[in-house]
Amino acid sequence: MTPIWRRTALSILAGLVLPVGAAGAFDASREDVRLFIDEMRGRHGFTQEWLDGVIGSAASDQRILELISRPAERVRPWYEYRAHFLTEQRIAAGVTFWAAHRDRLAAVERETGVPARIIVGILGVETFYGRITGRFRVLDALATLAFDYPPRSSYFRTELEQFLLLGREEPRVNLLAAQGSYAGAMGRPQFMPRSYRVYAVDGDGDGRRDLWQSWDDTIASIANYLAGHGWRAGEPVETPARLWYADAGQLVAGSIEANETVDALRDKGLAFETQLAGDAPAVFIRVDGVDGPELRAGFHNFAVITQYNRSVMYALAVSELGSTIEARLQPAGGG
Predict the structure, then answer these.
(1) Given 39, 80, 109, 126, which residue is catalytic?
(2) What CA–CA distance (Å, rounded) separates 162 from 80?
(3) How far apart are CA 296 and CA 316, in angstroms?
(4) Is 126 a catalytic residue?
(5) What is the pLDDT of residues 125-165, one digit of tens each?
(6) Within 13 Å, how many C-alpha atoms sit on residue 318's CB side?
(7) Where are the chain's structural domains?
C-alpha cells in the first residue's frame, strides 16, 4: 500500500499546474540537483518520482538572491533598525496580544523559565504578531538558496532536506503551497524547517504542531526553542553601560557570543549594574544611537536570543520591545 504521506503528496502534485519550461524552474537533471535527489532517496527513502515532482516544481527567484545579499541588520544603523520595530503601532499590538494570551504566556513562562516579554518581543519583531509572515513559497526560497547561492548552499540544502521531511511528518505542511520569508522561515514564529522539526511543540493538545494557525503552539514552540538553547530562568538579557575610564581600548564590540565575563568587562573599563556573579558570561555591545554610540553589557540570555537570529541588533530589539510592552500592560483584571 502506498504510504499516506506519499498519496497526499502525489495528489498535491497532480493538482499543480505549471507552464512547461517555466522561467527559473529547476531541472532535475542538473548535476547538483540530481545529487541532492539521489541523497534524499538513499538517506530517507523518498521515491524518484516524488522528488522529481517536488524539486521540479521549485523555481529559482532572483528577488530572493537580492534580498539575502542585503539583510536589514547589515545595512541599517541601530537607531534606524530600532525605529522600525519600536513603533507605537507595534507596541500597542504587543499589548493587545499579551492581554489576549496572558494565561498561556504565564503558563509557558512557569514551565520553561522563558519570560513572556521575550516571547512577545520575538513575535513582534518576527511577524508583527502574525501580520507579516512572508509571501515567498518556502520551496522556492530554499531551492533557490540551496542551488543558486554558493556562499550558503550547504546550509540551505540541509534546510531543504528538513523541509521535505517536515512535509512527510506534518500533513498540514503543504510543500507546494507553504509561504514564508525569502530565507524559508515559516509561520508566526518564523522557524526554519530544522527548527520546526526539532523545537515545535503541540501547545494546544490537538495532536498537531501548527505554527501558522495555533497561537498556543507558537508560544510554546518559541519558549521551547529558547529553553533548548540554554535559556537561564531569572537571569537578565542586557543592561545599559558606560565607560568608567577614557582609555578602554581592550573593549571590542560585535560578538554575538558572551565571550567575556562580568569582571573582565569591568576590568577593561565598562561600568554597568548587575546582580550576576563576576564570573558570569558577558559581552560588550556598542551600537550607533541617534546621539552617538550606545553601550550595553549583554549576558548569557542575550547570546541565547541571537541563536534565533544571529544579530546583535535583533536581540536588542527583541529585549527592548518586550520590556516596553510589559511596562504598558495593564494588570490582570485592570481597567
Answers:
(1) 126
(2) 34
(3) 10
(4) yes
(5) 999 999 999 999 999 999 999 999 999 999 999 999 999 99
(6) 29
(7) 238-302
